[in-house]
Write a structure and sequence with these properties.
- The protein is 39% helix and 20% strand.
- Helix 3 packs antiparallel against helix 4, helix 3 runs antiparallel to helix 5 and helix 8 crosses helix 13.
- An 8-stranded mixed beta sheet has the order 1-11-12-13-16-10-9-4.
- The protein has 13 helices and 18 strands.
- The protein folds into 2 domains: 98 residues, Serine-tRNA synthetase, tRNA binding domain (Helix Hairpins, Orthogonal Bundle); 305 residues, Bira Bifunctional Protein, Domain 2 (BirA Bifunctional Protein, domain 2), CATH 3.30.930.10.
- By secondary structure, it is an alpha+beta fold.
- Strand 14 and strand 15 form a beta hairpin.
Length: 424
C-alpha cells in the first residue's frame, strides 16, 4: 500500500515509479479523489459543528420549558443530508483504497529496467557447473529409477503436480528441512516458529496476495486460505503492533507446507517436482527499522546462499529487473542453482525487500528510540530454501554414473550416517 501523502506531495515522482512497472500515470486520478475526500470531510465536519450548535440551543430551550420552539428548531436538522454525505465519503474512500491496493510497490533505484527476466542481472556466481563425465539425468529420471519418486501414486491420490517420495529420498527431504532450520536458528539469528497453514482474509491481504492474486491461492469452504508460503503468517505476526525500535530486527523462520494453484503455469515444468501444488519450504522473514532494511536484505540473501554452499551445488545471485520483480517487492535477489539434467540455471530462492509496502497494509509500526516518533517498519521475506528444489539440486549435482546419489557431508548427521543413496 502506498502513502497517499507522498503521492499528493510529488505526483510526478509517483507516476515515474509506476512507469518503471509498465503502468500508465496514476497520480491524477488518486489526487483528484483525495481532494474530493478532503473536501467532503471538511463539509461533514462543518455540518456536524452546525448540528451540535443547534442541539445545544434545543437543549437550552427545553430547560427553559420552551418545548414548542425546541420542536420547531429540531425540525430544521436534516438528518438525511448528513447520512448522504457520509455514504458519499465512504464510497470515495473505498475507490481510493481499491486503486492504491492494486498498484505495485515502488522499485529501488538500483533495480535494472527491463520488460522481463531477460533483463535480470547476474551479480555473482558461486561454484562452476561440473563435468560429471557422463550424460546427466533429470531428477525425475533418477528418482523413478531409484523407485523412490512416485508420480503415479500421487496422481491417483491428488492429480497432477503432486509427488510421493519414498524411503531414503523421503528422509533426504526431511534432512534438508532440519538442516536448514538448524543453520538459520543457530548461525543466522532467526527464531523458529510453528505457524498455522490456514489464515484469514486479513493475513493474505496484509502481505499483498489479496485482492489481486486470489486465483493463485486455495480457499477452504469456510473462507480461510491455505498459505502459499510461511511469509503470510510470519509477517502478519506483527500486524497492528507498535514495536519498540530496540526490539528490531525481528528475524523469524518456519518450515511449512505451501499451497499454490499455479494458475499461470499451464504447460510449464509438467514433469517432475519443480512446480507443485503442495511443497515444503523453509521461509525467512525480517521485520526491521527503515534504515536497516538494505543491510537486512543482504543478511537474508547470504543466509540462503550459505544453505546452497554447504550443499555443494553451483549457484548464482541475480537481481531481478523491473519487469520481473514481484508485486510487493521493492528489490529482489533470486538465487539460481545449476541443474545438470536440465543444463540450466533455475530459481531456488527469492529474497525480497518490501520496505514499508506490506507494513502499511498491516498497520505494523515501530516506536523510535526517542519514545515519540512512530513509523512503519520494513518487512523482508525469502526462501531459505524450498525443500523440493533443494532436493532436486542435490540429486542432479551429486548423481553418479550408476544412478546413485551422493549425500552432501553436511547432511550425514541428519541421515543417520548415510552417505549415499544407491539403486536396488
Amino acid at each position: 500500500m502506498h502513502d497517499i501523502r507522498a503521492i499528493r506531495e510529488n505526483p510526478a515522482a509517483f507516476d515515474a515509479a509506476m512507469a518503471r512497472r509498465g503502468l500508465v500515470a496514476q497520480s491524477e486520478n488518486i489526487v483528484t479523489l483525495d481532494a474530493r475526500r478532503r473536501d467532503m470531510v471538511a463539509e461533514i465536519q462543518k455540518w456536524e459543528t452546525q448540528r451540535n450548535a443547534v442541539s445545544k440551543q434545543i437543549g437550552q430551550l427545553i430547560r427553559e420549558g420552551r418545548n414548542t420552539e425546541a420542536a420547531e428548531l429540531r425540525a430544521t436538522i436534516v438528518e438525511s443530508a448528513d447520512e448522504v454525505l457520509k455514504r458519499q465519503l465512504s464510497d470515495i474512500e473505498a475507490r481510493i483504497k481499491e486503486t492504491l491496493e492494486g498498484l505495485p510497490n515502488i522499485l529501488d533505484p538500483d533495480v535494472p529496467d527491463g520488460p522481463d527476466e531477460s533483463a535480470n542481472k547476474v551479480l555473482a556466481v558461486h561454484g562452476a557447473p561440473r563435468d560429471l563425465g557422463f550424460e546427466p539425468k533429470q531428477h525425475f529420471e533418477l528418482g523413478e529409477t531409484l523407485g523412490m519418486m512416485d508420480f503415479g501414486t500421487a496422481a491417483k491420490l491428488s492429480g497432477a503436480r503432486f509427488t510421493v517420495l519414498r524411503g531414503p529420498l523421503a528422509r533426504l527431504e526431511r534432512a534438508l528441512g532440519q538442516f536448514m532450520l538448524d543453520l538459520h536458528t543457530r548461525e543466522h539469528g532467526y527464531e523458529e516458529m510453528v505457524v498455522p497453514s490456514l489464515v484469514n482474509d486479513a493475513a493474505v491481504y496484509g502481505t499483498g496476495q489479496l485482492p489481486k492474486f486470489s486465483e493463485d491461492l486455495f480457499q477452504t469452504t469456510d473462507g480461510r486460505w491455505l498459505i502459499p508460503t510461511a511469509e503470510v503468517p510470519l509477517t502478519n505476526s506483527v500486524a497492528g503492533e507498535i514495536i519498540a525500535e530496540k526490539a528490531l530486527p525481528i528475524r523469524l523462520t518456519a518450515l511449512t507446507d505451501c499451497f499454490r494453484s499455479e494458475a499461470g503455469a499451464a504447460g510449464r515444468d509438467t514433469r517432475g517436482m519443480m512446480r507443485q501444488h503442495q511443497f515444503r519450504k523453509v521461509e525467512l522473514v525480517s521485520i526491521c527499522a527503515p534504515e536497516a532494511s538494505a543491510a537486512e536484505h543482504e543478511h537474508m540473501t547470504r543466509s540462503a546462499e550459505k544453505v546452497l554452499a554447504l550443499l555443494e551445488v553451483p549457484f548464482r545471485r541475480v537481481v531481478l529487473s523491473s519487469g520481473d520483480t514481484g508485486f510487493g517487492a521493492a528489490k529482489t535477489h533470486d538465487l539460481e542453482v545449476w541443474l545438470p539434467g536440465q543444463q540450466a540455471w533455475r530459481e531456488i530462492s527469492s529474497c525480497s525487500n518490501c520496505r514499508d509496502f506490506q507494513a502499511r497494509r498491516m498497520n505494523a509500526r515501530y516506536r523510535a528510540a526517542d519514545g515519540k516518533a512512530v513509523g512503519h517498519v520494513h518487512t523482508l521475506n525469502g526462501s531459505g530454501v524450498a525443500l523440493g528444489r533443494a532436493l532436486i539440486a542435490v540429486m542432479e549435482n551429486h548423481q553418479q554414473a550408476d544412478g546413485a546419489i551422493l549425500i552432501p557431508e553436511v547432511l550425514w548427521p541428519y541421515m543417520g550416517g548415510m552417505e549415499r543413496i544407491a539403486p536396488g
